[in-house]
Write a structure and sequence with these properties.
Elements (H helix, E strand, L loop, with lengths): L4 E7 L2 E10 L4 H9 L5 E11 L1 H12 L3 E3 L3 H22 L5
Parallel strand pairs: 2-3, 3-4
Antiparallel strand pairs: 1-2
Helix pairs in contact: 2-3
């Protein structure tokens, strides 16, 4: 089983955090640390990510919502992020309009 590998490259345009392998909730703290120590413009390169869990998908959705670019995002991860965003939007809508069930 391949674990997660994180490689970070920075230049004058920003930072790319390249992720490889399986990305799970247990890796989130390390990823947050890498992001926090990066320059202003951050992109996450997901080309070599092979597996994610729900926690990571929700984290990636929040990252993208905060303006981070997700490079080479596999189609299944992109679809899952879209579904989570839709689910969160519906949940917020129901909380603010409980009579619309």
């Amino acid at each position: 089983m391949m674990t997660l590998r994180i490689e970070k490259t920075s230049d004058v345009h920003g930072t790319i955090v390249r992720l490889s392998g399986r990305l799970a909730a247990e890796h989130r703290a390390e990823l947050v640390e890498q992001i926090a120590s990066s320059t202003a413009r951050i992109a996450l390169d997901l080309e070599e990510v092979t597996l994610v869990d729900l926690d990571v998908v929700q984290f990636l959705a929040r990252c993208e919502g905060a303006g981070m670019e997700l490079l080479h995002c596999p189609a299944y991860i992109r679809e899952w992020i879209s579904r989570e965003n839709d689910r969160r939007a519906r949940s917020r809508s129901l909380r603010s309009n409980p009579g619309e069930i």
